[in-house]
Amino acid sequence: MKQLEVATYTMTIDAPIDHTFACLAEDEHIIKWNDHLIENIYEDGDASLVTGKRFISVQQFEKKEIRVESELTHVNRPYKCEVQAMTNQGVSTATYTLNETADGTDVTIRITLAPSSWLYTLYVKAFRWAIRLIYDEQFKQFRIYTEASAPKPSPAREAE
Questions:
Q1: Phi and psi (nearest 5°) for 151?
Q2: How far apart are CA 13 and CA 105, in angstroms?
Q3: What is the pTM of this model?
Q4: Which of 30, 82, 97, 142 could form a disulfide with 74 if both were Cys (CB 3.0 to 4.6 A apart)?
């Protein structure tokens, strides 16, 4: 299957890299900024972020609830995380890359899809703009939540 680029987002988050990674990858944070996620159900009941971790992601789009088989295919905390989701339509991959900077954390999010058939390939190419709209709103909420919930420097540290 050929991978199609769905979207790539780059942003600088005014927050430390550890906090930014936690907000992007840990369930307790994701449900606060991702309107679609209901819960992740882990095969072993453990939500730790390790490569190879399998889970069912329960999501809601409009009034429809869907369950998606997912796997963390790469975790290098707090610099990179990759998750794959397998559906009848194909395999989608979200790759999150973080770099600490003087201004906070640079985040690059790359979403790709390997459609399962030529029909889904046409669908993705035709409706990529609509798919991006869903992600645009979610990652806008991610940024707002992460910056608002970031630990504030102590007054003594600000004086340095």
A1: -65, 135
A2: 5
A3: 0.87
A4: 82
Tokens 């890359």 correspond to what residue? 97
The type of residue at 72 is L
Q: What is the pLDDT of residue 1?
A: 64
97: number of CA atoms within 13 Å, CB side? 8
Burial class from Cβ neighbours inside 10 Å (0-12, 13-18, 19+) for residue 97 reads middle
Could you tell me which residues are beta bridge partners of residue 37? Answer: 59
Element (H, E) at 120: helix 118-149
What amino acid is encoded at 124 in this protein?
V
Residue 149 CA to residue 123 CA, distance in Å, equals 37
Calculate Rg over the CA atoms of the chain.
17
pLDDT per residue over 4-20, tens digit each? 888 999 999 999 999 99
